[in-house]
Amino acid sequence: MEKIISIEGMSCEHCVKAVTNALKEVEGVEEVKVSLEEKNAVVKGNNLDDEKLKGAVEEAGYDVVNIK
Ligand SMILES: [Cu+2]
Questions:
Q1: Please, what is the average pLDDT of the chain?
Q2: What is the pTM of this model?
């Protein structure tokens, strides 16, 4: 399955790296692609839980606008 997470607050490649690393720690996540331009993260994996994905991004210091 794939989730697209809209994220507010990323301003540079360091932010991209922080969000990528945070999402990689989430249960079931196999692949993470964060885009600074699109302000989102495309996550692939199994049994992905929206709340866990949101929590990981917020814990890294960024805001989740929505998850599709
Ligand atoms: Cu940054």
A1: 98
A2: 0.96
CATH number at residue 12: 3.30.70.100
- Looking at residue 22, its pLDDT comes to 98
The Cα angle at residue 23 between residues 67 and 43, in degrees rounded to 5: 50
Instruction: Measure 53 CA to ligand 1 centroid, in angstroms.
Output: 19
Ion ligand 1 neighbours (CB, 5 A) are 11-12, 14-15
Structural domain tally of the chain? 1
Domain, as residue range, for 43:
2-67
| Ligand 1 centre distance from Cα of residue 39 (Å) | 12
Question: Sign (positive/negative) of CA torsion 5, 16, 56, 29?
Answer: positive
